[in-house]
Design brief:
The complex is a heterodimer of chains A (385) and B (112). With 385 residues, chain A is an all-alpha fold. Helices cover 72% and strands 0% of the residues of chain A. Chain A has twelve helices and no strands. Chain A has helices at 3-37, 42-56, 79-98, 105-121, 128-161, 166-206, 218-234, 237-246, 252-271, 278-292, 300-331, 333-355. In chain A, helix 1 packs parallel to helix 8, helix 1 packs parallel to helix 10 and helix 9 packs across helix 10 (278-292). Chain A starts with a helix and ends in a 30-residue tail after the last helix. Chain B is mainly alpha-helical and 112 residues long. Helices cover 79% and strands 0% of the residues of chain B. The chains are: A mainly alpha (385), B mainly alpha (112). At the A-B interface, helix 5, helix 6 and helix 9 of A face helix 2 and helix 4 of B.
Chain lengths: 385, 112
Amino acid sequence: MTEGTVIVIVVVLFGLAFDFTNGFHDTANAMATSVATGALRPRVAVGLSGVLNFVGAFLSLAVATTIATGIVDAGVITTTVVFAGLVGAITWNLVTWLFGLPSSSSHAVIGGTIGAAIVGSGWAAIQGAGIVSKVLVPAFFSPIIAALAAALSVMLAFRIVRRARPDFVQRAYRIGQVASASLVSLAHGTNDAQKTMGIITLALITNGNISTHTGIPEWVVVTCAAAIALGTYMGGWRVIRTVGKGITEISTPQGFVAESISSAVILGAAHLGFAVSTTQVASGSVLGVGLGRRGAAVRWSTVGQMVVAWVVTIPSAAILGGAAEFVAGRIGGLPGVLVTAVVAVCVYGAIYAASRLHPVTADNVNAPIPEGAPSALAIETAPAT
Amino acid sequence: MLALVTPLAAAIVDWGGLVQVVLFAVVAGLVIVGAFSLGVVGLDRWRAFRSGAAPTAGQAAESAAAGSISDAASPVGVSPPMFAFGSLAMAIAGFGICVVAVLLGLWSIVHR
């Protein structure tokens, strides 16, 4: 086995790990409101979302190889750059998960790759116009568009159903919410699993394992679908809590509207040629249904933390990816990749251990947030008797 | 400053496409949510009629005077069965629009 092959194996493992984190980080996009309103029990919600992500991963491969196109000069992409980009993306996904912040996994992997490419080949490797038009502009506008559409739609929904029987309205919207959340899960599986397929395929092409005309190997499709589905099933409860409970208290009609708007914006934008972040659209929709309901309180402190996370995702992932590329490049070759991988795994373990200090699980994901708590992750404990 | 930024923004940002996305999101959202909500109201009234709890002409008039959008389906002076079947038709049409929207969504996922 050559050194290059071992590096590719490490890249594949980290690619699948990224896909896994992408799944559990983004479960909230589809299922946070369904969990928060009680439309689905938490375990059922993540199970359904996992299955639909798995199915979605097989539906289309059209954009799989376009992940870094127009953003980083294709000539500078090596297996080490891909590896370092993944290390940065996974680390940022785990850090934001620890704080329960719904940041974009796509932006994390783009940022990680940008940072690794800059450290590996200098600033000339970056295509600034592509970053602005393909990443930054959609990142700025997509949550605003989703919030606007959700606010208007939720006003309309409440106006229409205000004289219907509340218990029937709740039941009907609950069914509608399951359908709309399922569509978001399916779209997420199609969109996000493809990104990892593209990254792994890129590494295989770069190392000469397959040619550019081979297409995506079947084992890559199957393993990526399984990784994102498993990650989704694990349930990123911390992010689910923030989106479902932390932004605003959501009623069933609001949950339905938020999911419907998310799927409309994600699918509509993709159809019109804009790649938007599922996470930002979903969070924007939840914010919108909070703003559109008279008397509903929006926790602006949570929204502020979320926006800060969105703004710093690409630079932070770039710094982490750049640091990984620096270490791997300094040591060089297979030893560099292995040392970086071991350090990264230790960091991931530490983040996981930190999360266990204040665990958020399926059992307490819907627990009330204490008044004035600085974070949506705070769990209200029952007063001592 | 503005003279410098405007052509730069025009070159980088596809404003026409962005407006299309905004219009699509707002219109699609209002149509889907509106249709589903009318479906819910229609079905609620149909079920109320079936269970013998149909609104009286007086209730309908009071409701219409309040100006609810859903009261478009509760015209004063229409017999209860007509009113109920009108509600059922509204429910079928509303949910039908939503089913078409879901099918279009699935189509766009598969044919990307």
